[in-house]
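Quick illustration, no need to memorize.
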Amino acid sequence: MQFEVWAPQAGRVTLHHGDATRALERDPEREGWWQGEAEAADGTRYGYALDDGPVLPDPRSRRQPDGPDGRSAVVEHGAHSWRIAWAGRPLPGAVLYELHVGTYTSEGTLDAAAERLGHLVELGITHVELMPLCPFPGRHGWGYEGVSLWAVHEPYGGPAALKRFVDRAHELGLGVVLDVVHNHLGPSGNYLPVFGPYFTETHHTPWGAAVNLDAPGSDEVRDYFVGSALAWLRDYRIDGLRLDAVHALRDTRACHFLEELSTAVDALAAELDRPLFLIAESDLNDPRIITPRGEGGLGIQAQWNDDFHHALHTALTGESQGYYEDFARSPFAALAKTLTGGYFHDGSYSAFRGRHHGRALNRARVAGHRLLGYSQTHDQVGNRAQGDRLAATLSPGLLACAATLTLTAPFTPMLFMGEEWAAGTPWQFFTDHTDPELAEAVRRGRRREFAAHGWAEEDVPDPQDPATRDRSCLDWSEPDREPHARVLAWYRQLIALRHEQPDLTDPDLADTKVAYDEGQRWLAFRRGDVRVAVNLGKEPAEIPLGPRHARVLAAWEPVQAPGTDGVLHLPGESGVVLLQE
C-alpha cells in the first residue's frame, strides 16, 4: 500500500505501521511530500514520526479509532457495498433538517439516528443536514472543534456507520448534507502545525491564527481542504456540504478559496453524474458568495440567511439584545424586507456593528432557494445561556406562526431537530474535553461570556457535566402527546403544501409581495396565487387580502375565507395559508 504525507520542514519521516517501521523517501515530483510502500490492510494502525518526534496521526487520516491523539487506521473505501444506486437530490425544492447525531437519540450514534429517519420521511423532509462528524476529544460535543478532517468521530460509529446512515437515508429518498469546518480546528489533538504551515499569523480569527489560504505553503493547505470536501462527497456519497463561518476564511488571493472549492465540487458532480452543492454560513451579506462563477461570483449554491431568522425572532419574542438590536426597532418591517429582498442589511447602517453592512441582492438574478430560511438552528438555540428553544417561552400558536412563515417563505426552509414538535428539551452547549486545563478554561469562558449579559454564573450549565448533554437529547415520547402532536401535525401539513403548491417553490424573489401592520402585529404576503397571513398579536386581526375569491388550504385555528370585502378575520396567535382562484 502507498503511504504519503506532506511535511515540508521535516528532515526525516518514519512510517510506523502495525508493529513495523519504514523510512519514507522524498517524492521527487512534489516538493515537501514523502512517500513509501508498506504492507497494510483495512484497519491497520499507522502514524508518522517527523525527525526524532513522537508518532503522530496522519493529517489525511480516514479513521481515528482511538481518538484524535491515537494512531490512524487504514480505511478501504472500495470494500463497502452500497445497497442502492443513488442519482442524487438537488437543492431547489428542498426542505432541510439540521440534526446533531450525539443528541438526536439518547444512544448518540449514527446507527441509532438512522433508525429514526422514517420520522423525517413522514414529516416531508428532503435532506438531513448532519452537524460536524470529524473526531474531537471525548465522546460528546457539538463537533466544531474537530480535527482529522477526513475522518468520522469514532463514538458515533466511525466511517462504516456513516456509510450505513447515508445508505439508509438514500434508501428512503433523503439527501444527506454534512456540516464541515474549514475555518479552524480544535485546539486538542490538532497536530497539523507540526507537519507544515497549515496556519498563518498573517490573519487572525476568533479562534487564533487563521488557516493558511494565501501565505507561503498555502497551495498544499488549500488542496488539503478541497480534498477533504471531495472525499466526503465521493467516498461517503454525501449530497452537499454546509461550510461553517466562511467569513473567517481569510484569503487575499485573486482566486478565492471558495471559488476553487466550488469549481472542484462542480467538476466532481459532472464526473459522478449526480447533483452536488455547497451551502455557506456567512454574516457578510455579500451576494458574490451565492452568485455563479460565470457571473463574477464564487459559485456557492446557497447560504444560511440569519437576517430572516433575526427579523422573525424579534417579531416573535421582542428580544433586542446583541445583533437583534438592528431588527427590533421595527421587526415586521425587517421581516418584510427579508421576505422580499433576502438580506435586511443590504448596505444599510448596522447599529450593532457601528457601520454600514452588506450589499443588495439582485432579485432578478438570485433565486430564492439560494437562501436558507429558519426560525431556529443549533447556533441560535445552543448559544443562548440555557439553550432554550422558542417552545420554552412561546405559545403553540406563535410556534405555528413561526412555522408558517418559515415553510412558505421564498427561501429553502430548514428545521432544527425537535422543532417540528415543539420539543420541551433544551439544546445546550456541552463538551467532553479530556484535557483538564482546557475543560476548565471552556467552563470559565462560557460563564464569563454570559455573566456579561446579566446571567448569574450558577445559572449557566456546566459544559463538562454529562447531565448537560443528557438534557439536550430529544425526548421521543413527546410527539405522541399534546401540545407536541398538534404542532407536529401542523408542520407536516405545511411541508406537504410546500411540495404540492408550485408557487411555494417558485425561485423568483421579486414575486413576493408583503403587507403588515406593526401595531396590530400581523403580516401577510403573496407568492403567485398563494396567500399567507400570520397574526402574532393576542387579539383577532382584520387583514385586507383583496377581492379575489380564496379558499383555505391550512389554518392553525378555524378561520373563514375572506368574504366579498376581501378582509380576512384571523384569530390571535394564528397562521393561515390560502389559495386565490
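The mean pLDDT is 95.
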